[in-house]
Specification:
About 20% of the residues lie in helices and about 25% in strands. It is built from 4 helices and 10 strands. The chain has a 5-stranded antiparallel β-sheet with strand order 1-2-9-4-7, with no helix packed on it. It has a 5-stranded antiparallel β-sheet with strand order 6-5-8-3-10. The termini are far apart. The mean pLDDT is about 90.
Length: about 220
Amino acid sequence: MNTSSLFLQLFLLLLGFAKPDPDPLQDYCIADTKSPLFLNGAPCLNPRLALSSHFITSALAKPGDTKANPFGFSVILTTLANLPGINTMGITMARVDIAAEGLVPPHSHPRASEVTICLQGVLLVGFVDTSNRLFTQQLQPGDSFVFPRGLIHYLYNLDSRKPALAISGLSSQNPGAQIASRAAFVSNPFIPDRVLEKAFQISRNDVDKIRRNLGG
């Protein structure tokens, strides 16, 4: 067997294991949020104790506080705490409120792809692929856009007077989120200044200024 054929078979084998979340082994697994066990997910409540209320939440019903950060956005997620029936289902829903000219800054979800539907306002959205190509689009109410798993993406409210609203579905119950600018400049501990100076071709003063602006 030649090297290229062996590499292809290994690649296909790894691809077969590349799933965001494992498939459930039962109809549902109500999260037992009081269990002391630490698992990749949450332990299951006894199915006999399942209630209709485990499968409903009003967490996304009310707007979030877009003034809580300097970017002007709020994201409210369904979680095991507010929707325990979502455990092992491999999905998360998110309400995204964006103030006038607010921004969900460039960020990524390491464990999930995302589909966003614009419900209110006009959004400028986009993502950058691994060849550094930008895919961008303006969304009107009712339009949807897909952000592939792990790629840097953003949402910007083009309206200078009115807030925007979007709902997103993500392909993991724990998609994770990493804002690129905060990861680079306000990590704990800080990435060494000389690394950031070289990577972004900026000065030490620029590094300090960006850190202050991001709350570091």
